[in-house]
Predict the structure.
Amino acid sequence: MSIVIENLSFTYGKKTPYKKQALKNVSFTVNEGDFLGIIGHTGSGKSTLIQHINGLIKLEEGKIKVFDIDLSQKKPDLKLLRRKVGMVFQYPEYQLFDETVEKDVAFGPKNLKMSDEEIKQSVKEAIELVGLDYESIKDKSPFEISGGQKRRVAIAGVIAMKPKVLILDEPTAGLDPKGKEEILELILKLKESSAHTVIMIGHDIDELSRYVKRLIVLNDGQLVYDAKPAKLFENREKLEEMGLDVPIAYKLKCALSEKGVKMGEVANDDDFVREYLKIYKEKKN
Amino acid sequence: MRDFAFGQYYPTGSVVHRLDPRVKIILSLFYLVIIFFVVSYVTYLIVALFLLFVVLISKIPVLSVLKSVKAVIFLLVFTAVLNIFFYKEGKVIAEWGIIVITAQGIDFAVKMILRLSLLVMGSSILMFTSTPTEITDGMEYLMAPLKFVRFPVHDVAIIMSIALRFIPTLMEETDKIIMAQKARGAAFDCGKFTERVKAVVPILIPLFASSFRRAEELALALDTRCYDATPKRTRMKKLKAGWKDFIAVIIVAALGTVILLDKYYFLSFDRMIENALGWNLWGA
Amino acid sequence: MSEAIIFENVSYTYNDGEENAVKALRDVSLSVHEGEFLALVGRNGSGKSTLAKMMNGLILPDKGKVVSFGYDTQNKDTIFEVRKRVGLVFQNPDNQMVASIVEEDIAFGPENLGVKREEIIERVDFALKSVGMEEYRKSTPFKMSGGQKQRIAIAGVLAMLPKALVLDESTAMLDPKGRKEVLDVVKKLNKEEGITVVLITHYMEEALDSDRIAVMDNGKILKEGTPKDIFCDYELIDKAGLKLPTLLNIARRLKEEGVKFNREIFSEEELIEELCQLL
């Protein structure tokens, strides 16, 4: 198991009139190779949760274990933790700062004290992995490339640290439709070739259910569901009460089933098209 | 993430909170001046009781007001030590070689500490009970006469207002950037001085870049909302002083009167008590 | 139908004459009709935002002209007449607010216009009510959700009593709930107050309910038409780098897989009915 979280609770601004409990008794585990999605409306505690996994927020209550690193210990090895868990924040391009793309991507590896040779190698690999041409982009300023490229460079900066777990907070926010699709395809590719465990926070249920194999739902700091997408959507009414939608493909499946058309499991449009074609072709033959 | 990032404002909705900010600013200024006229321990006690009274009716925790002194504690200790060890006149209490401690020296030091602490606590009440916007508004009104010497009061007020508005946003942004760079293995809290200075670059550059981006959009937003359309800009908010403001003025004026009477008329309540009891503390 | 905003052969180049010059608009002609809900879509860098900023004279054309409610935006004397009538709302709500208290922020526009105090208060009331934020009058926007902040930004523009509202990707940074809040407000303003709306968005679902869609690519308008005209033109959608709304995309994929539809599909009901009949 890569990550084990037990009874995690957290409160912001504990001793002020502005205190707010962000997480209440959250428990779940992430296994190696998982593709996990976390969903919940703004303020449901998603960001607080993933910041805990990377040791960016000090653990107050509960237990977190990431590989062999026990975060409930007094002085956990944060450097090792951050090497194992790569974190891509919302709008990650806003953290770029160095003169050249190459130097910027090398920031993480350098902090981890990799050898010069290793740094050069992993930077090149990371830039190529995110689908950019190393030779032509490495000397450019990260401030003069296009928006889509910036985001790729920022992701490369995390990938270059060779994390085993990759966490992404709304990686497609603010992109145009094509840009979104490209980034999602990239994440899929990274999962296969580099970081094998991926946790992705998102808002767009249609988009998330197309990629993740498991979904965690947070509401008011509590974990309310942890299930595979097609199963999760069976709680449609409860989800809608929390202000969360189910994918259109799932809605269509429900509507058809009311009219007597029974389909197999549907979590996204791929499933829907496949299942419908199955029935359609049977009827035609 | 900081929860409430800017200012010490502590909302309780008390009568002190609801005073006209102009009145509060003027009274605070008056208090800052008058405190330098306090000469006797009795009046220090009166001022302290007055502060306690204000803190109680404003419903802010007494402890957080006391804590505001923490910021100047070094200054307090430093001046106290200077006064105790280097004030040479008056009745000698102790003597070690060149170090001479006199009763007057201690008296001076204690009064200095009292004065500075009461000063800091008094002004902190203004900050605890008024939002930054209220202070800006109050200042704008109080600066209004400067318009006649062509001082751009409105523009300055808008600049102040925007600055106040953006401080929490930029602080939040800084937190985010620090977190993002920490996640990339940056260590801000260890290493040699030069390393720490270097570590600031990955925070500052994205912060500047973001500020420029924000400034650009803000400029467009100001234009969109017709900034500078007419020199006859109007104001929605009108500050109005009411009966509670007059009461506040009278209470503070009473405090001022007591302080001035003590200094100029009774020539120190302390002295009167000493004389009545026949003490001789100062070796005169 | 009278015209709210007219573009006549408008061209614009950023950093004109320099090495990094970018042609943003190429000979664009477009009319925004008074009272309509127009959606403007296209990939990043297609020129949408430049077009939006020309509507109230934040950017002036290099060639051609823009006339908003009868005022040429290039006439410096009447620029505030234009800005009063055409309000822009931008992407990041945080960058559009000037004051730390909601009502003071909303009052900023009318204050700049020199509106009388009593009327400013009325306008603030109206604007807050229109966006459903009356109870937040004295609050600070800092801790609010994105949707709430953006509604306040809209209120700030509404207080100038504009005839047209231009939203330049104003929903891009919001979550689905916030997007819906903002969109509902905008639709209501369009229907009930008769305010002309130009909505720039990457979310095709948001364009579905508009009166008209204009598709932009590479500084030009590729096509104008009803949502049906646009979303049934698969070739156009691909060419402009767009994606169909999920529902229509499912229909498209089924068609491409050989399902023979007997009619055009445009709504969920239509699709469900058709899919049942086909079996």
Observations:
- Residues 3-231 of chain A form a domain with the Rossmann fold fold (CATH 3.40.50.300).
